[in-house]
Amino acid sequence: MFGAALEDRHRKLSMIRVLLSLVWLVVTVGLAAAQDLQSVLQTHAEEVASPSRNSVSVVLDDLADLGSPQVSVFLEQWAERNIWQDDATSLFYIGAEDGDAIALTDLDSGEQSTAASDGYTQIRPNGGVRRVIGSALVQFQLTDPDPDRRRSALESIGRRADASQLPLLEASLEGEADPDIRARKVQLINFLIARFGEDTADRVVAIESLSSDTSVEARAVLSQILSTSTDVTDGEPSGNIARVLDSSSDPAAFYSELVEADLAPPLVSPGDIRAALEANIVDGRVGGVPIAQLGTDVLRVQAYAALAADGLVPPLVTQADVAATLSSFTFYEDYDEPDPTITDAARATLDTVETRVGLEQTVDLTLDGLSLASIYFLAAIGLAITFGQMGVINMAHGEFIMMGAYTGYVVQLFVPDYTISLMISLPLAFAVTFGAGVAMERLVIRHLYHRPLETLLATFGISIALQQIAKNIFGTQARPLTSPEWLGGALVISDVIQISYIRIAIFVLAIVFLCLLLFILKRTRLGLEVRAVTQNPGMAASMGINPDRINMMTFGLGSGIAGVAGVGIGLYAQVTSEMGANYIVQSFMTVVVGGVGSVFGTLAGAGLIGFLQKGIEWLNPSNTLAAQTYMILFIILFIQFRPKGIVAPKGRAAAD
Amino acid sequence: MSQTPPPRKSFIVRNPSVLYFLAALALFTVFVAVMSEATGTGLISTSFVKTLGKTLCFCLIAIAMDVVWGYCGILSLGHFAFFGIGGYAIGMWLMYARTELIVAQSLAGQVIPPTQQEVTDAIGKQIFGVVGSSDFPAIWMFADSLFMQLAIVVLVPGLLALVFGWLAFRSRVTGVYLSILTQAMTLALALYLFQNDSGLRGNNGLSGLQNIPGFADSGQDVISLVFFLASAAALALGYVVFAWITDSKLGNIIQAIRDDESRVRFLGYHVESYKLFVFTITAIVAGIAGALYYPQAGIINPAEVAPIASIYLAVWVAIGGRGRLYGAVIGAALVSLLSSWFTGGGAPDIDLGFYKIQWVDWWLVLLGVTFALVTLFAPKGIGGLFDKLVRKS
Amino acid sequence: MNIITKYSLGVTAAFLIAGSAAAQDCADPIKVGVLHSLSGTMAISETTLKDTMELLIAQQNKAGGLLGCEIEAVVVDPASDWPLFAEKARELLTVSDVDVIFGSWTSVSRKSALPVLEELNGLMFYPVQYEGEESSRNVFYTGAAPNQQAIPATDYFLEELGVEKFALLGTDYVYPRTTNNILEQYLIDAGIPEENIFVNYTPFGHSDWSTIVADVVELGADGSQVGVISTINGDANIGFYKELAAAGISADDIPVVAFSVGEEELSGLDTSDLVGHLAAWNYFQSAESEANDEWVAAWKETMGEERVTNDPMEAHYIGFNMWVNAVEEAGTTDVDAVREAMYGQEFPNLTGGTAVMLPNHHLAKPVLIGEITEDGQFDIISQTEEVPGDAWTDFLPESAVLTSDWKDLGCGMYNTETATCVQLTSNY
Question: How many whole angstroms separate alpha carbon C249 and alpha carbon A488?
Fold first, then answer.
């Protein structure tokens, strides 16, 4: 038997390898009475070298039978891709590559050696195989003294649960000292009992205990208990029936199922009719109809019916036939779980859970909306100052956002620590864009205060120039702007409600700027002067305010905020030379919808647009582009009916 | 008291520039026609004839823009949307008719004559196969009729402008707000067209438009010349019509609205109607320009309609000089031809020793800065300089 | 492409690459048109290919040119403006009189140039993976058809990773739309119920991914293994992967396989959070073969140490070399003669094995699946035998009956059911 298997295994190998292996086998069998790990692996050499999820279990079973302590070490190293194969002898080693050399460890003896890495191939099991290996490791790792290994075993159970793990898990619970791991074990035992428990009452208890758990895992347990399969019968349905399906809702689909199950004759498609007609031409006629007249469906059907009457083709299945056939069958779904008490409990629990999930999803959507609104607000608030207070249409505003983001990128090039670089880039981005804003105001805007519409044109020119300059300097490739470690990850309230820290940070940034701006405008001398110049520049000037200086400061402030917004936006999305252009139209709409000249208006505008977009996306989750289109249409309509925005300016300021 | 006003001089005498313009255009057209490959001289390549023809279409939409902005003071950032709609409308017919011929040819060899349904299905499969669909969307319902699609070229931009303008002018949305609103309209249209489900082949747009159905045998050299001549004729006609409109009493009111809307309103004129008229008629002209442009370009896709295109249109008019029709023509022709000269590698690179200025990279910077400078220091554009010269002489 | 690297390159206009081989008795040099955008949105991807072509032509000239003649590159810039591709193609073929064109990246740019190529009987090599459903007499498609990238990757998901629920996320344009249509049908045929396939389209450059990532996570609520097949294009990937990482989704939880993310795209990202996510291509820079080592070394020597190689570059590498061999075989650069000589051309590809040009103008190439590593490269974990490219997919009923064979049938859109040629020009 051994010989036959051996022969079979080696058929594909070259002669040299056969000889080598034979020699090797004789030696090993001669030396060691019991089989060692390497020889088991060699019997499955190909499968070990390029494992596949569906077939790797053969190897794992044999390894489990071996029961040697090296097995778990091997499995771990295998999954970690630290196993290397000698190309010449096909032997496996634990290897660590170091330049051109490789440090090898013998699997059985643990003997160390070094070799050139040229003659060795790294074994790379894919993700699916690694998961199977992980399951096989569970039995070794559950009671391992290293808590990391225990955790990885639990992770493995969480991903791929099966009934055999329940006793192992229960046995390991006793000696568990780590409270976190213990709690996780208890939770997993609960999941496993719910799915695979022996006793119905225990299962129902376990199932009902999940009613307040909205985690994806818990819902998965319930859904799996409730898994169904569709069946069809011409009599009374039997089994643990989930529901009876209405076949008239989609006759074509249900009928095709019947056809597939050979329970009904197939439909004859127009293509079939055509082919049948072509095949049955007699003397220029088909079923008595001349070919030239077969250009209409009516005559085609007529000809086909004639053929069918002669028994040359299968008869046409009409709509009535389909309806009649369908009515004689019952389609139903039945649970794979035979016990109705279990499925009823699971169904009731799942319904409760889903209500909660729905609620949590609403909260999550609100958070997303809030986050989007804060991003729009941040992008638009600078514009609200320059546009709202000064009436300047700054098309280059988006480019200031871009400049801020690139400032962040450049700072990261020089300061490798992400936290420190962020601390530097925020004020630096403000300074850079403040400077750029002031320069633009002095050079361009200043000359156009009496022609506000033309600021649009001039700043557009500057915008395309700036964008192209950025392209020339940084290239069109997106540049990485990486957030610090502590801003990575997400605030997880439940599996449904979570929001990434970076978005929270942007939200905080938006709030800070809102407060700062309100403070400056309402509580400082600068703010007073800005408002004065906005309302009546001439009068303000006669009161000793220098409108030139105020305009410069205001414009610089608005531009500076854009720069800071750029850093924030770059952290969560991409930094490219076109990123500003993506926000400019949106930002103008935010300001206009909100009402020009009011910080709160911009806030309201950003909120409206952010929530609206999320709402439309929720209604139509498969097409984000359509959501954006509808949103813009809504804004157009909104402006028609409230041309001055949500927070409309009053009095003098209202007249442009 | 009855004092007869002096008889108005004829339109041409009052507007000699129209005559100059028409003469120059005619000369230019004849020159290009003689030099083109179609007549055998071949000094101007077919691709350059196409470029010139397209430039004439740009000139046409530029004078429309000039009327709406330079004369009436409405800075519309949506006229390229109308241009695109015109292109899509004619493109639908071109694609349908061309595919119909191909389908008819391939179905002709079959034993059993095809049904109407089979023909339509086959055409649909050909046109929409690229976007993974085969059904005709409702907006293609008139695609088989050239007459209907030509009507759509005029009607859809006209109606859209009418409705949009009516809503906007009625709400007294003016100035910057109107600009942003028209820009939003353009963006909405572009986003809509970008969707694959829009029924206009999404990002792929409509292509192969240079192959005119029924003229497969006449080469592109002839087709390009025909379209060039048609564009020239349309430009001439458009120029005369707009010159006449701006010269009439209507034109005076329009310009008065630009200068002070409230005053005109207090004088008893229904300002909204005048604005609506100008907005709509220029939109129609923009649609016609688009319908002439895209068969020369060969392909239309949503990127053509993106908001930036409309801003560029404003740039052309501003550089050329607002409020004078020939200014718009000069601006559009100059900037678009220069643009293709610079990006096409026609301009020699400038070696500064430490850095080599390559115009492919720096052309947009130059354009942007020039534009800002023109806005600042020559608000009347090139046309303004022209005026000064004429007056001096 | 920054100022410094650009400075070292000649761009735009027609210019000559001086090789070392002396051009003897050549009345006109052999001209190769390069039709890749050097400005605009696509410049980032396409400039690399222009550089690739220049490197290949320089190498060939060093090796003695072609038919004893020097090869001259005629570079034009269609500026990511789709109508310009038609205009520039016409210019190349009629004004510059090129013998062959290497160019285009997006499908829409190819469809723009197609009518011109067919009208003037030009020859173009198109190097990028695309949605198929096309076979022009005048174009050789050296990139992957869907069955050479999407289908094997999906098989990998089904068989190796045991994925039961699929999220097909894509940018809203033709390649993702058609690919996803094909995949949807393929998955349904493979027994995945329709409700287990979630499809979403986002605009170019999309950045707000939180809701979509949440939707994907939610798919796993019934205990199924979820996998994401991403046809998200370009910059938008950055936001997407950042959001995935922020949500703490590892490749073990929800694997993502991308068809448009290669070495170039990853250079704009910190890949530490993406380790283990997948990409499917016909080539990775990490492929182990001597030819690849040489190619990578030559590339880095010309372009700089930090530059990476990618799949479309390999496509041009194979395409150009095949064209050179075909010209030598035909003894002329005449388009029809070269086209005939192209069929059955073999050339070793950079991943080991041999690429073959099929009569449907597509290549037979192996499919590789790689896992993203920390250094922005890919660990190749699966490599198939050569898969013949299929112009018309077998998984959509309308195109299953179509086939393309320019050698024997002389038709790119041949209906096997009715045994007729649907059309000789292509369906642009």
Answer: 12
The residues spanned by each domain of chain C are 3-144+288-368, 147-287+369-388
Six-digit token string for C392 = 């018309």
C278: closest chain A residue by CA = A127
Q: For residue C340, report the phi and psi dihedrals to the nearest 5 degrees.
A: -60, -40
Which of B83-87, B205-209, C202-206, C364-368 shows the lowest mean pLDDT across its residues?
C202-206
Domain total of chain A: 4
Note whether residue A570 is domain-resident.
yes
Tell me the C-alpha to C-alpha distance, in Å, between residue B4 and each of B7, B213, C234: 8, 58, 72
Q: Which residue has the tokens 């995945």?
A: C192
Burial class (CB in 10 A: 0-12, 13-18, 19+), A527: middle
Question: In B198-245, which ranges are E strands?
Answer: 206-207
- How does the average pLDDT of chain A come out, rounded? 85
Report how far Cα C68 is from the mean position of its chain's Cα atoms: 31
Backbone angles phi, psi at A93, to 5 degrees: -135, 160
Question: Is domain C3-144+288-368 annotated with CATH 3.30.70.330?
Answer: no
Asked if residues C367 and C280 have their Cβ atoms less than 8 Å apart, the reply is yes
Mean confidence (pLDDT) of chain B:
88
pLDDT tens digit string along A284-322?
Answer: 888 888 888 888 888 888 888 888 888 888 888 888 888
Contact A458 B368 (CB under 8 A): no
CA distance C87 to A552: 47
CATH 3.40.50.970 assigned to domain C147-287+369-388? The reply is no
* C272 close to A (CB below 8 A): no
CA angle C321, C324, C325 (to 5 degrees): 90
Phi, psi (5° rounding) for residue B221? Answer: -60, -40
**Contact yes or no for C222 and A219 at CB 8 A:** yes
Burial of A483 (0-12, 13-18, 19+ CB in 10 A): buried
**Least confident segment among A10-24, B14-28, B203-217, C390-404:** A10-24
| Whether C140 contacts C380, CB under 8 Å | no
Confidence of residue A6 (pLDDT cuts 50, 70, 90): very low
Q: Do A478 and A369 reside in the same domain of the chain? A: yes
Instruction: Check pLDDT > 60 for residue A7.
Output: no
Give B269-292 pLDDT, tens digit per residue.
Answer: 999 999 999 999 999 999 999 999
CB pairs under 8 A between A and B: 145
- Please tell me the distance from the alpha carbon of residue A456 to that of residue B176, in angstroms, as a whole number: 8
Q: Tell whether the model's pLDDT for residue C24 goes beyond 50.
A: no
Q: What number of H helices and E strands is found in chain A?
A: 28, 12
Report yes or no on A338 lying in a domain. Answer: no
Kindly determine whether residue B126 and residue C427, on different chains, have CB atoms separated by under 8 Å: yes
- Angle in degrees, CA C84, C88, C91, rounded to 5: 145
Asked if A456 and B75 come within 8 Å (Cβ–Cβ), the reply is yes
- Count Cα neighbours of A27 within 13 Å in the Cβ-side half-sphere: 7
- What is the Cα–Cα distance from A49 to A543, expressed in whole angstroms? 86
Share of chain A above pLDDT 70, in %: 94
User: Is A109 found in the same domain as A186?
Assistant: no
Distance CA C124, CA C100 (A): 6
> Per the structure block, which two tokens stand in for B218?
């006449």
| pTM, entire model | 0.86
Residue A267 CA to residue A250 CA, distance in Å, equals 15
- Say how many CA atoms lie within 13 Å of C199 toward its Cβ: 14
Amino acid letter, residue B378? A
**A636·B181 Cβ contact <8 A:** yes
Domain annotation covers residue A621: yes
Q: Are residues A423 and A391 in the same domain?
A: yes
Partners of residue A479 in chain C, C-beta under 8 Å? 268
Reduced to 3 states (helix: H, G, I; strand: E, B; else coil), residue B91 is helix
Average pLDDT over residues B334-362: 78
